[in-house]
Amino acid sequence: MLSRLLFAAAGASLISAHFILQWPETAGFDDDAEPQSPCGGATAILNSTSPQIHVEQFAISILSTHPEAEWQFRATTDTQPPYNFTDIVPVVNSTGIGSFCLPSMSAPAEFAGHPGVIQVIDNSVDGVLYQCAPVNFVSGANSTLDSACTNATGFTASWTSLESIDGSDSSASGTMASMTGSTTGTASSTASSTESGTGSASSVAAAAIVTGVSGILGGLGLLAAGLAL
């Protein structure tokens, strides 16, 4: 599925498009409506055919047409707007144009067994843009990587200390990491898990940028080798 989506997206015009959420599959793409919160003018329709997302580890793949951007990743089990999104990782800075993949995202453990929405926010030269994907959260981790989970040549990304790029009161949960992707097929990170202030168990979110079909999440000693979606 991811391979087909990436191939189709590769034919999109890099001149007209802002960004496209490739996996999980976007609820809808309208270039002119992307500045509209929460989902870029699209309606996230949740049903049994929405892709399964493993809360302990899943991938997010994006086609970006902005040379520099900040990215925010959120999730919710609300099925109707206004959504109460949770920031699942800190803000990511990126440089470069083309596809990039984050193969080791995670969501709160309590999301498992519920339908929900993943939101991606892009803050770049064109302003703040939005895309959403309807999903079904399930327990466990998907750590088997597909060759389609790649970064474009010259694309790099790194974590920041920011929790939000659009004024949200949500706070990031999981792992804080410092990381830079490379174009040689590896990625390194320094990670430390954080603990929820409410006393509830927080999910451990190891986040890595992968180029090619493999990458190493050094902080957890995890070898990632392509995500079969």
TrEMBL record:
<keyword id="KW-0325">Glycoprotein</keyword>
<dbReference type="InterPro" id="IPR046936">
    <property type="entry name" value="BIM1-like"/>
</dbReference>
<keyword id="KW-1003">Cell membrane</keyword>
<feature type="transmembrane region" description="Helical">
    <location>
        <begin position="204"/>
        <end position="228"/>
    </location>
</feature>
<keyword id="KW-1133">Transmembrane helix</keyword>
<feature type="domain" description="Copper acquisition factor BIM1-like">
    <location>
        <begin position="16"/>
        <end position="154"/>
    </location>
</feature>
<protein>
    <recommendedName>
        <fullName>Copper acquisition factor BIM1-like domain-containing protein</fullName>
    </recommendedName>
</protein>
<feature type="region of interest" description="Disordered">
    <location>
        <begin position="170"/>
        <end position="199"/>
    </location>
</feature>
<keyword id="KW-0732">Signal</keyword>
<keyword id="KW-0336">GPI-anchor</keyword>
<keyword id="KW-0812">Transmembrane</keyword>
<feature type="signal peptide">
    <location>
        <begin position="1"/>
        <end position="17"/>
    </location>
</feature>
<dbReference type="Pfam" id="PF20238">
    <property type="entry name" value="BIM1-like_dom"/>
</dbReference>
<dbReference type="InterPro" id="IPR046530">
    <property type="entry name" value="BIM1-like_dom"/>
</dbReference>
<dbReference type="GO" id="GO:0005886">
    <property type="term" value="C:plasma membrane"/>
</dbReference>
<keyword id="KW-0449">Lipoprotein</keyword>
<dbReference type="GO" id="GO:0098552">
    <property type="term" value="C:side of membrane"/>
</dbReference>
<keyword id="KW-0472">Membrane</keyword>
